[in-house]
Amino acid sequence: MSGKLSRFDELNLSRLNLISAVDQADTTEWDVTFESQGRIVRVQCEALPKYAIPHGLDSDVTAALINLFIEEGEPEDGRFAVSATKLLKLCGWHNTGKYHSSLRLCLERLHTTSYSVSGGWRDHPKGRWTHAKFHFIESLDFSSSDMSGAFDERTVISGRLADAIVASIRGGYVKPLDAEFMLSLSRPRTRALYRILDGARFDPDNPDVPLEQMEVNLIAWAEQCKLPSSIPGNIRRALTSPHEELIKRGYLRAVTITGRGRAQTIRYEFVREFTPMDPVLARRFRSYGVADGVARKLVRDLGRPFLIESMDRFDDLVRRGVLNVKKTPAAALIHLVNHPDEYPYPTAPQGNQRPANATGGRTEVLIPMPGIEQEFDQLSLEQAAEKAIGRLNFHFRNSLDAWDLDHLRAAIIAGRIDVVSLLNDGMAAVARSAKGDFVAQLRVQLGKPQ
């Protein structure tokens, strides 16, 4: 497969914007009330004094965690596991001590900050507006080499995303996100503004068609961006540099501010981006429930031939009973498209080995995968370790903790554990309903204290 993986953003988060578009913050709360399509929406944020409200680099981390969660198969329980090294890469940051420290701070802030949304959280499958109270990260664990909890090259992070976010992503309330473009922007506030604008372009009732232009009140927009000042001059100055970069980089065609005082308005004109699709391909995507906007991005990133082949393969696996979709065909298809090596054409089941349904609509292909040796043969030991952690976490996320994943990753990188044998043993244990035995044996192999 060629091309980059598609990235997505959850539309509630991008539209409501829970991350302040400033580089530094020292406040501990904000409270915004606004009218949207005849509804009164109130969004509140309360942070611990030691961390301040989520801001700046936190936007990179939330985007990375959303896409990590999607890549790991959107587990129903919202759990994720990832090495600090991989998460830094997903954030677009350098793998240095400075960014290890920043990453831990961002994660702690997202874990401890409380959000409340009244009447403005979209339950897209039901077409209703609901209330939601949550922390972005509801639980957080990580491994560390010392009592301070500092992140290092070996750190593995595990946690659980908020139920409201998990339900929204699994319900398909997402939009394409050009993460490569976002991470190429020079400053955290520019990246945050890009994400806010890209979310505001979408009609919540019809998220498939982005706007080509939009007009907002200056003061209301400052609240949307969670800027600390309500003085028009300060707001304009805070937005000037991000506006200039987004115009220069070809995302905005123009920004026009008109009016006086608190009645000033900002008019955004977007550079039109459209990927044409032939009607046959569009109808086929819609038959699975894939939104047009998502389909266009898939075509742009991966090309028509690969997508046709993937849909044919998906249909064949479903027809033969190897892949059993319990949630939505759209989510299952996109997971296959983004993880083609996890869905080989299966051989006939032997003995008691047969496919079993994964939690939340994903299918665990439990038959030993043909070509798994070739799949990992092309990877470095570090790449193999990252892939193994993600795959095992999908099946054993309630059994393996941060210590287990830390030491497993280190053992694979050091060559003490063969990743192919490990995964085949793990999948066989899942097929036999013997997860506990596999985990116990693995911990003995890793030397975990009893």
UniProtKB/TrEMBL annotation:
Domain of life from the UniProt record: Bacteria
Stored InterPro entries: Replication_initiator_prot_A
Protein's UniProt name: Replication initiator protein A
Pfam family, one: RPA
Source organism: Deinococcus taklimakanensis
